[in-house]
């Protein structure tokens, strides 16, 4: 990876040691030194004050302070430097090869959150991932494409939102907790979903995505319908998804279905960014005993087998459910808690994986009226 533009204004004597020190700082998510990862885009010196500019390809705002402290301490060994002024920014990669038909010019990356099986916590993961990416400094949207049970309006507390179309073409989206949301649930009546044929549903969902007035977004998270059937396959082909996250629980049956999810994305050349194991463990609030009600290590073994990262393991925890039921997901309801920290860690991993994957959209979107 290399940075878009680098401004280095140091003498050769100083540049070498500074770059060596910065490259010795391994970024945990990119698994490379800061220089090799292309994060160092500015180096200048005023007297003995080093001006350092870092640009990350994934959002990591909650880590900025730690990074500044570590890097400043490391550079302090050089006699020529007695102060470091560090600016950190985030700039996600933009999809490199967009098709001629580009329905989402405002969106840099599209992440599909999928599961092989219903009820594993896909929507809970999708909404918390979207909010965690936002908490790390990204501009984020979420599309609730789960026609079997659109739950994002409830989870974001925007159940009474009704999209309008002032120009008769593009629909408005809801705003909640700093992210933009569109949901099939805003459009559907109670029992409409179940009767849709696969291609028709996928067409309608792709249309919903392309005909919504999204603001400039770094990431669009799509909460996919559960399963690996026609709708999911067609949707994956109609939308230029740049990476997929597969959610599973550790139990055998969910894992078997999640494997089908991974294979489906691999078949349509969508990079699988990794696996989230939800409801991995439960810690008793009274005695602190940790148990694995649905088995253990399934997600890890699956990740190893398919050679994709295990992005994180979430506990089975009452307040995760209560928070989404209250319309304020845990990342927002308890930002300093350990669950929010896990979601933010997953968000950084997802952003870094997208940056590390040479992404091109799966296919161009071509929506025909009859689908
Ligand atoms: N880690 C967790 N701890 C406790 N409850 C959870 C956790 N993850 C999800 N839940 C709860 O489990 C239920 C199912 O979650 P969710 O709706 O996110 O699953 P899903 O896979 O999207 O389901 P569907 O297939 O119906 O769309 C919800 O009530 C949710 O609040």
Automatic annotation (TrEMBL):
**UniProt KW keywords:** ATP-binding, Hydrolase, Iron, Iron-sulfur, Metal-binding, Nucleotide-binding
Q: Report the leader peptide range.
A: none
**Domain of life of the organism in this record?**
Bacteria
The keyword ATP-binding belongs to this UniProt entry's keyword annotation: yes
Q: Which residues bind ATP?
A: 116-123
InterPro entries named in the record: FSCA_dom_sf, Mrp-like_CS, Mrp/NBP35_ATP-bd, NUBPL-like, P-loop_NTPase, YlxH/NBP35
- What SUPFAM superfamilies does this protein's entry cite? Fe-S cluster assembly (FSCA) domain-like (SSF117916), P-loop containing nucleoside triphosphate hydrolases (SSF52540)
Asked if the record carries the keyword Nucleus, the reply is: no
Q: How does it assemble?
A: Homodimer.
Task performed by this protein: Binds and transfers iron-sulfur (Fe-S) clusters to target apoproteins. Can hydrolyze ATP.
- What family, per the record? Belongs to the Mrp/NBP35 ATP-binding proteins family.
Q: List the protein's name.
A: Iron-sulfur cluster carrier protein
Q: Which gene encodes it?
A: apbC
């Amino acid at each position: 990876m290399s940075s878009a533009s680098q401004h280095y204004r140091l003498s050769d004597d100083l540049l070498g040691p500074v770059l060596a020190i910065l490259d010795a700082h391994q970024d945990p998510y990119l698994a490379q030194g800061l220089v090799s990862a292309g994060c160092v885009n500015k180096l200048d010196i005023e007297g003995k004050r080093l001006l350092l500019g870092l640009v990350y390809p994934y959002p990591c705002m909650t880590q900025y302070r730690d990074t500044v402290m570590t890097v400043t301490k490391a550079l302090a060994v050089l006699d020529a430097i007695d102060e470091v002024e560090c600016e950190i920014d985030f700039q996600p990669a933009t999809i490199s090869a967009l098709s001629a038909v580009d329905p989402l010019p405002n969106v840099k990356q599209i992440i599909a959150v999928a599961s092989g099986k219903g009820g594993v916590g896909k929507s809970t993961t999708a909404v918390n991932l979207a909010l965690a990416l936002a908490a790390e400094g990204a501009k984020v949207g979420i599309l609730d494409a789960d026609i079997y049970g659109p739950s994002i309006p409830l989870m974001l507390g925007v159940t009474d939102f009704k999209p309008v179309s002032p120009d008769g073409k593009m629909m408005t989206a809801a705003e909640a907790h700093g992210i933009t949301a569109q949901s099939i649930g805003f459009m559907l009546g109670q029992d409409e979903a179940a009767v849709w044929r696969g291609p028709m549903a996928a067409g309608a969902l792709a249309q919903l995505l392309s005909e919504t007035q999204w603001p400039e977004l770094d990431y669009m998270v799509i909460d996919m319908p559960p399963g690996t059937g026609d709708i999911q396959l067609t949707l994956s082909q109609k939308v230029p998804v740049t990476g997929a996250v597969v959610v599973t629980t550790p139990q055998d049956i969910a894992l078997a279905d999640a494997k089908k999810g991974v294979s489906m994305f691999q078949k349509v050349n969508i990079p699988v960014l990794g696996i989230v194991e939800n409801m991995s463990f439960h810690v008793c609030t009274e005695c602190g005993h940790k148990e694995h009600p649905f088995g253990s290590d399934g997600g890890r073994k699956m990740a190893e087998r398919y050679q994709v990262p295990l992005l994180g393991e979430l506990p089975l925890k009452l307040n995760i459910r209560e928070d989404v039921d209250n319309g304020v997901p845990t990342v927002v309801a308890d930002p300093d808690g350990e669950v929010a920290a896990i979601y933010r860690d997953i968000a950084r991993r997802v952003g870094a994986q997208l940056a590390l994957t040479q992404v091109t959209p799966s296919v161009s979107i071509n929506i025909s009226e009859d689908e």
